[in-house]
Amino acid sequence: YSQALHLQRVALSRWDARAILDDPFATFTSAGDRFLDDFRVRALPAPEERDRLMEEATRRAAVPVFEAVRRRSGFRARLLRLVKEVKQSGRPVDDACRRLEVGARELAGDARERLEGFLAVFAEYEALLAHAGLEDHEDSLRRLLEHLAARPRTLHMPRALVVDGFDDFTPVEQGIVDALADAVTHRGGEVIVTLPWDAARPALFAASA
After folding, report:
1. Cα 92 from Cα 111, distance rounded (Å)
2. Closest residue by Cα to residue 158 from 54, 39, 26, 55
3. What digits encode the pLDDT tens for the residues 94-146?
4. What backbone torsions phi and psi does residue 203 show, to the nearest 5 degrees?
5. First-to-last CA distance in the chain?
6. In this structure, what is the dihedral angle of CA atoms 101, 102, 103, 109, given to the nearest 10 degrees?
């Protein structure tokens, strides 16, 4: 809530107008519901449910190199983090996995065995997600980006877009921000991006002051 109030103050400092914040703020996952009539976020698994799905995925994949550690929650957490990083690229999962398969063939020994094992577990995890009618947060963002790309300038956009409090983006998040910004500016609106102060990068803030 405090961040929403800060966003409001930033926006109102730039426009002397009322009612510009009828939709005061959106997260990445709610942006689709707000700006696209036919987009809805599907059911997202809780962290505990993701762990259970990964536990079952490792059991089904039966990767020999993972057998000694697959029952450890810390190992499953690492696999889930790798899944997250792959999905944050914004590429369809099938395409991302094909690229990883090509990369695995260029490896040798334990490195190849582990990457191919991860891909086997990943495939089982995705099948379990689909069977349960769930999607990861990153899946919803990728779908949103695909929807935005399919109709870049037919969105129900406000005339002001404020991106507040971020200091980095994943590729899929960057794609979403770019698409929304393009839709706003195409209608003559304005985009403001605020950055948290970083003492290690004073030149950036001096240049944008």
Report:
1. 24
2. 26
3. 999 999 999 999 999 999 999 999 999 999 999 999 999 999 999 999 999 99
4. -65, -35
5. 27
6. 70
For 64, which DSSP code?
G
Own/partner long-range contacts of 107-112 (Cβ < 8 Å, ≥24 apart): 110/65
Say yes or no to pLDDT of 86 above 50. yes
Q: What is the per-residue pLDDT for 163?
A: 81
Q: What is the mean pLDDT of residues 167-193?
A: 85
Angle, alpha carbons 145-148-16 (nearest 5°): 110
CA pair distance 30, 42, nearest whole angstrom: 11
Q: How far is CA 180 from the centre of its chain?
A: 15
Give the type of residue at 69. Answer: V
**What are the φ/ψ torsions at residue 178 (nearest 5 degrees)?**
-60, -45
Which residue(s) pair with 192 in the sheet? 162
Compute how many other C-beta atoms are within 10 angstroms of the C-beta atom of residue 49.
Answer: 14
Cα distances (Å, whole numbers) of residue 89 to 55, 60, 124, 169, 200: 24, 26, 20, 11, 27
Burial label for 131, CB within 10 Å (0-12, 13-18, 19+), is exposed
- Report pLDDT digits (tens) over 40-74: 888 899 999 999 999 999 999 999 999 999 999 99
